[in-house]
Design goal:
Blueprint: E1 2-3, E2 13-15, E3 18-33, E4 36-43, E5 52-54, E6 59-66, E7 75-77, E8 102-108, E9 114-119, H1 124-127, E10 133-138, E11 148-157, E12 170-173, E13 183-186, E14 197-199, E15 204-211, E16 217-221, E17 226-231, E18 234-235, E19 243-244, E20 246-249, E21 254-260, E22 265-271, E23 289-294
Parallel strand pairs: 1-11, 3-6, 4-12, 5-10, 11-15, 14-23
Antiparallel strand pairs: 2-3, 3-4, 6-8, 7-9, 9-10, 11-13, 15-21, 16-20, 16-22, 17-18, 17-19, 17-21, 22-23
């Protein structure tokens, strides 16, 4: 099964053959670092929202309840769904969710297994940059050859109230209209608050990456080479797969990589843009950075 470190998997119930999920859009205080919170918008109490995992052919119903002080919607990024379910109310015949109301999105999973996203598509410049998004993964239970399957949402935020180069406990607001990003997250946390990945020597790991932000992230793994196997939820033919140490995940993209954990050690996995490896431009390692412990 897919794991999204530091982010929960969204549970579902089965009713008459339909997998039913519940998302709650609401204000969220997300803990970036111990004692340091940002005030944003998310789902089910977290930024990013919980990871949704389904399978090909599933009929799904996702009830989205709006507890925000403003209207919202949800777009199923990369999924082939009916026009009325696509979640862009400004131009499509799809409902806008007013505060205090809910909408049921129902569709069949027709895409092949792959990595996708969900996010707000109403007042996108504000709501996405306040944190409204999550991972949507179509899982293949019959796939063989993968020992561990991890998924990450990559985001950046302009958190206000902290002088540049300073950190301190407290709760701070997000300025969604600023491009002065100072916190860069993997599944809603900054290093050293990101949970390390654990692997046994000889296991084959897959890492799924999704970029909901405004900047590209060249994700670099130390110690072993990665094979890039999928882009935007679509498998790359084996003859076109490249072996790499760095994979660029552009805004709106998802990328899958896999590798054999043959080399023991505690290996960094991080964005290679220097400013993205810091917390509010402080000098110790931080930001979009985690480790993979191979033993």
């Amino acid at each position: 099964m897919v794991e999204s470190p530091d982010v929960s998997l969204l549970p579902c119930t089965l009713h008459n053959g339909v997998k039913c999920f519940e998302l709650i859009a609401q204000p969220v205080q997300q803990e970036l670092l111990p004692g340091l919170f940002m005030q944003g918008y998310g789902y089910n109490g977290s930024i990013p929202g919980p990871t949704i995992v389904v399978e090909p052919g599933d009929q799904v119903r996702i009830r989205v309840t709006n507890l925000l002080p403003e209207a919202t919607c949800v777009h199923w990024h990369g999924l082939d769904v009916p026009n009325t379910m696509d979640g862009v109310p400004d131009i499509e015949p799809t409902p806008l969710i007013r505060p205090g109301y809910y909408v049921d999105y129902e569709f069949r999973i027709v895409n092949q297994p792959g990595t996708h996203m969900y996010h707000s598509h109403h007042e996108t410049i504000r709501q996405e940059m306040m944190g409204m998004g999550g991972l949507f993964i179509i899982w293949d239970r019959y796939e063989r050859g993968i020992s561990r399957d991890f998924a990450y949402m990559l985001q950046e935020f302009a958190v206000t109230g902290l002088p540049k180069g300073k950190l301190g406990p407290g709760t701070y607001a997000i300025d969604p209209l600023s491009d002065g990003f100072n916190f860069f997250t993997m599944n809603g946390r900054c290093f050293p608050n990101t949970s390390p990945l654990q692997a046994r020597r000889g296991e084959v790991l897959r890492i799924r990456m999704a970029n909901l932000g405004m900047q590209g992230h060249p994700m670099h793994l130390h110690g072993v080479q990665m094979l890039e196997t999928a882009c935007d939820g679509n498998e790359i033919p084996p003859w076109n797969q490249l072996r790499r140490s760095t994979v660029l995940v552009s805004p709106g993209e998802t990328r899958d990589v896999r590798f054999l954990a043959w080399n023991p050690g505690n290996w960094p996995f991080h964005c290679h843009i220097p400013h993205h490896n810091a917390n509010n431009f402080t000098l110790p390692t931080g930001g979009m950075f985690t480790t993979i412990q191979v033993g």
